[in-house]
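Lab notebook: predicted structure, single chain.

Context: the supervisor wants predicted structures on file for every construct in the current expression panel, including those that have not yet been purified. This is the next one on the list. No modifications to the sequence; it matches the entry in the shared construct table.
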Amino acid sequence: MSDRFTIGLKARGLGLALAVVRDLRDVWPPATAEGLEQFETDVLAGFVLARASAGPADGTIRRDFGHLEQMRSWFGRPLWEMEPPDADAYFGKVLRTSPSGTRPGCSQALATYFLFLELRHKVEIHRMTGRVIESPIDEMNRPRGSKDAALPIPPSGPVVKTLFTGWGGELATCRKFTPTARNCTASKLMSQVGLRVSEACKLDLTDIKWDLGRLGKLHVRQGKGARGSGPRERMVPLINGADRTPRWFIEDVWGQFDVTNDRRGRGRGLPRSGARSARGRAESSTRRPGRG
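Prediction complete. Output recorded below exactly as produced.
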């Protein structure tokens, strides 16, 4: 059978039968250079809009689009014509001496763009050019980061116990009891229930819900948002003995704060930088020789 014809299915009454149908290339002639240029512009605009609707930050979208523009300028043709050897040349030669994060970022932008082309414009591009969309990034030429991901390893239980035992011992001799007790309490809550520093700094007395559950819960009002959606609230159970931590702070420390004498006006509140620096000092003192 001629290449100009394909075999298809044709409905006849209630059944289906084989029928000869026309090749789509007979219906749609190849696109002109001007038409392809306009189509490419529209596709890139659609890609930016689709990425914006997915929620990445504007800076991320601008960076990805910048990578695509640079590749398009080097390639000299629409990016959907790129094949693995073209990607080999670009990443292996043009970006060979670029900073370590440039090649992985550029590769990800190109892979995302080809995914967009495949999902949204595969049929149109095939109709206009006869080309089947396939990403030029594969497992052989996909750039790898120069460094392994720095995954934080949580300290063991004995290490955490040693830290807070030493920190608690310093409360009896420290120069400023109330801020030291406040920093210790916040850090202990973070270790017990998994709070972030920013979340612990924004807790208030009214956020402790003693009547919820068997042990009580913390109302985290300023939780980390997902994909730029803004702060997300959640209730955190006071597990791992965490119910005793705020109770001690309220009963033994809260009333000793003199807000009028606090130079920065923070009073009982915990500054974010103060939480990190206080924890760092406690960890350093714990590691000193002679401390158990």
